[in-house]
Design a protein that fits this description.
Structural class: alpha/beta
Strand order of the largest sheet: 3-8-7-4-5-6
Largest sheet: 6 strands, mixed
Radius of gyration: 20 Å
Strand content: 15-25%
Number of helices: 14
Amino acid sequence: MPRPAPLPSLILTRPATQNAAWAAQFAALGIDCIALPLIHIQFLDDATSVQRRLSVLAKLDQWAAIMHVSPNAVQGFWDAQAMQRWRQLSAGTESSANLPRLWSPGPGTAQALQAQGFAPEWVDQPAANAGQFDSEALWQQVQTQIQPGAQVLILRGSRAAASPAAPATPPQAQAQGDGQGRDWLAHQLQQCGAQLQFLPVYRRSPPVWNTQQRDLALGAAAARRVWLLSSSEGVQHLPQLLPGQDAAFWRDQSAIVTHPRIAQAAQRIGFGQIHISAPTVQAIALCLQGLER
């Protein structure tokens, strides 16, 4: 009996700190991966950022909810000091009742919170059968938690200033960037009378690929590996990372994307085939199987 054809190989483009775990899960399903991050993450540890975090931690039991926009937001905020503060407050019955809900826009961020040590019952995320995992789907689950005057902390990233040599991001691309869903959520919260505080805990910037990485990317593209794209901002970095490629090059590329906004970014680059999947290993594997039919 002939063996089934192997699934297409993937190009993982998440930040470097996340790709290894994804690669291991795909490997368990027999899916080969290479890692080429499209976004560089720098956690903020300057004196001003540290002082802002300490100020937030000092009133941890005053927040109704803490929104984590990504796994990077979890890692950038919940260090040993922050976790110790949480444990101190949760030790007392009266204090633990006032601890904030921990919001996540999708399963990846929820898993990062649980890996940090938070019990699942503290974490709110979109329903498992939600059409998309994003801020809009999260709001369907958490909107009843917010009363007028409630204080909500939003942990997010900031975009690094563009270097003089880097091309400016087109206004249309900026409008469709990764912050769109977060801005929508902030508007909903304000409409409910919530008081918001935004705390940047990491900085996003384009990665710097060396010659080996560029050669790896071009070889993977020629071999028809499938790009797994999880950030519209990261997609916008691709022409900068692989300069000089014509429209025919991008038409030959296939991508699996984890949100319609990312699909729009890939369309602007010129990807020939774009498939939308839920941002889980199992869903992406099923999508790959569909590409082979």
